[in-house]
């Protein structure tokens, strides 16, 4: 009994030292992906026999799988996006409290069943990443046995989740500030071109490049109305290297996404170009892997 007590004290000491080292590492980083990687690797190290996944709550309310560690079957099919309230992870985000599941494979809330069966996962601990009352993500751990997570483990993992939440929030603030600065710089460049250039094409190309950069897209095209032909035509474009160009370079007013925006004089968003009938170039979208327009 004394030997067992000493072993547990050593384990707790090792966990606290590892947690302290991690907290210093993530506190000094503003790289979100690096923070996520360090957190899941630390979670695996702190438990010794668990796998870990860290889900990040996006501004649109979607939980996105940000990083994972310890899995031996990465080829198994896995859902990487969840709604708040969906599955065990989604319920943790919704309730904003720790959720323990003794056997995930026997739980009807399990989403990634193929992965759980391939890995032989059983015991589960889901911990919310909270900044005040706001949830910014979920740290989800699973064991390949039914051995429940101990009170000592949960104490350390809760501290890990707290450190991770602050680091994720800080990294996001930094990223938002960086993007804001990039947007301002792009808009300033457009303004300089508009005031300095009398060449129509140079102005159009500058606008297309700025639109792609500002929105983080892979391609942007600027369309103008050709009154003589009664059509919208491509006046300028910008895109990442090797991105395939769509076949159409003209649209009639009211035709497709481009023509509809022109006719309605209103913003339209297509979230599934391969299937949305509003998008007139579905075959190209499927071949190019376009996910939104």
Strand order of the largest sheet: 3-2-1-6-5-4
Q: In what range is the share of β-strand residues?
A: 15-25%
Number of strands: 9
Q: Helical stretch count?
A: 8
Rg over alpha carbons: 25 Å
Characterize the largest beta sheet: strand count, sense, and whether it forms a barrel.
6 strands, antiparallel
The helix content, as a percent range, equals 40-55%
Shape: elongated
Q: Return the structural class.
A: alpha+beta
Helix-strand string: HHEEEHEHEEHHEEEHH
Straight-line distance between termini: 65 Å
Mean pLDDT: 86
Unreliable runs: none
Task: Give an overview of the whole structure.
With 293 residues, the protein is of the alpha+beta class. Helices cover 46% and strands 20% of the residues. It is built from eight helices and nine strands. Strands 3-2-1-6-5-4 form a six-stranded antiparallel beta sheet. Strands 7-8-9 form a three-stranded antiparallel beta sheet. Helix 1 (2-27) runs antiparallel to helix 2 and helix 1 (2-27) packs parallel to helix 5 (151-196). The longest helix has 46 residues, at 151-196.
């Amino acid at each position: 009994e004394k030997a067992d007590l000493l072993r547990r004290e050593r384990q707790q000491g090792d966990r606290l030292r590892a947690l302290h080292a991690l907290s210093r590492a993530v506190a000094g980083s503003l790289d979100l992906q690096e923070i996520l990687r360090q957190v899941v690797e630390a979670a695996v190290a702190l438990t010794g026999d668990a796998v870990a996944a860290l889900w990040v709550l996006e501004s649109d309310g979607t939980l996105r799988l940000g990083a994972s560690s310890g899995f031996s079957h990465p080829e198994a099919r896995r859902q990487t996006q969840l709604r708040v309230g969906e599955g065990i992870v989604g319920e943790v985000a919704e309730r904003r409290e720790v959720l323990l599941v003794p056997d995930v494979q026997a739980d009807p809330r399990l989403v990634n069943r193929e992965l759980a069966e391939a890995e032989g996962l059983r015991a589960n601990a889901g911990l919310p990443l909270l900044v005040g009352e706001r949830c910014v993500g979920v740290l989800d751990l699973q064991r390949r046995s039914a051995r429940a997570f101990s009170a000592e483990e949960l104490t350390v993992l809760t501290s890990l989740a707290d450190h991770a939440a602050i680091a994720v929030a800080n990294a996001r603030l930094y990223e938002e500030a960086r993007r804001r600065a990039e947007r301002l710089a792009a808009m300033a460049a457009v303004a300089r071109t508009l005031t300095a250039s009398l060449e129509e094409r140079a102005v159009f190309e500058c606008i297309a490049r700025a639109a792609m950069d500002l929105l983080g897209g892979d391609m942007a095209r600027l369309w103008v109305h050709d009154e003589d032909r009664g059509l919208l035509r491509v006046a300028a474009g910008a895109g990442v290297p090797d991105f395939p160009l769509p076949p159409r370079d003209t649209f009639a007013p009211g035709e497709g996404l481009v023509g509809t925006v022109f006719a309605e004089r209103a913003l339209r968003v297509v979230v599934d170009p391969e299937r949305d009938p509003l998008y007139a170039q579905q075959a190209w979208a499927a071949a190019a892997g376009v996910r939104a327009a």
